[in-house]
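Before relying on records like the one below, remember that each one covers exactly one chain. Contacts with other chains, cofactors or solvent are not represented anywhere in the record.
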Amino acid sequence: MTFNDKLHAYLQLTRFDKPVGIELLLWPTLWGVLLAAMGQAQQKGVSAGLPSFKVFIIFALGAILMRAAGCAINDFADRKVDGHVSRTKGRPLADGRLSAKEAIAAFLVLVLLSASLLLLLPIAVFYWSLGAVVLAFIYPFMKRFTHLPQVFLAAAFGWAIPMAYVAIQGAPDMWSWLLFIAYMCWTVAYDTQYAMADREDDLKIGVKSTAILFGRYEVIIISLLQTVFLLIMGAVMWHYFAPTSLGIIPVFGLALVAMMFAKQNSACTSRQAMACFQAFLANIWVGRYVFALVAIACLWTAFNG
């Protein structure tokens, strides 16, 4: 195998060739960074504040690296089953281009690179990051033991939110945990859509998922999870922005997310694999839009009070 072939295999292992998952982790991490800075400013009696550029970049890079590490350990966990699934049989461990040892090595290198960023943050953030590493390592294996692997995935992806509050405020507060719960609801919803696309293959090979657990009620439960996400995000937006000149405008901004969710769920009612997968992909725009909504609101209040 040539160097270019090996490099391409590693890019596939870490999904750097498919940045969908990076965005689904990156944008919510940055919601947490921005809102933690808002909370810190309000604690000091100031209506608004922005995070330092250093903290913003550290968490962005950390999200990218940890997502790649999660993909590497996921492929290690699924190396014996990916070859039996049409969508994953071309992954580098499934077709033999990379070995299990190389996947573990990639995971460790990415975790160490991510950990090195923590040297630039308070030591408390490092202690909290251990939870993220544990969750990132164990969640790929959960599909063999529970029908709720999506919950472990959501916790692994969302752990950056309380970490952001620790980095900026010194400790997570009630609003950080509400944001974490909202993110978990959204993640379980979109990863169930993803699992719906693989449900037939998962049933054949004995892999568990929420799509299998929820059965014919999966779209209803996805809708309920999305509703909880919107309600909690509305409360979070109200808490941070109602005291500012923006008032509750950011809360109303979530109406577009509700319309995005409605379109996704309409597609998922067909239960067709491609329709469910496209609904999952549409969540990239949810993440982007909510980030833009939060970022614009934070910038507006920082410069206009």
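The first helix runs from residue 3 to 14.
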